[in-house]
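Final report, closing paragraph on structural work. Over the funding period we assembled a curated collection of sequence-structure pairs, and we close with a single example.
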Amino acid sequence: MRKKMAVLGNRTAALPFLQLGVPVFEAPLDPVACQCQAADLIRQGYALLLVTEDCLVRCPQLLTRYDQDPAVTVLLLPGQNAAAPGLAQRRMTEMMEKALGQSLEDAASHEL
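Its predicted structure, as stored:
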């Protein structure tokens, strides 16, 4: 079975993905409705959810719910969110460090 990817969150932040043909789903403001929408997308075969920062600020349960699920990947799309600036960058750094098994700063200090 082929897996699909989708963007969940702010349509404006997801515009580049929409132009590439990636489906964009506007996230509900209510956290419970947002979780239900994500669960529904996963049931439909979406294995990669690109979530905008503003959506994650409203519904942080998306990360905790799917972080340990090997069949689903949740990546954050950076945005201009005053409530959590740099959230996507911090999350990406954490994921890369987990995958590499070391801090990125440590890896940079070993350059030739």
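The helical segments are 15-19, 31-43, 53-58, 61-66, 87-100, 104-108. The chain has one domain: 4-108. We thank the funder for supporting this effort.
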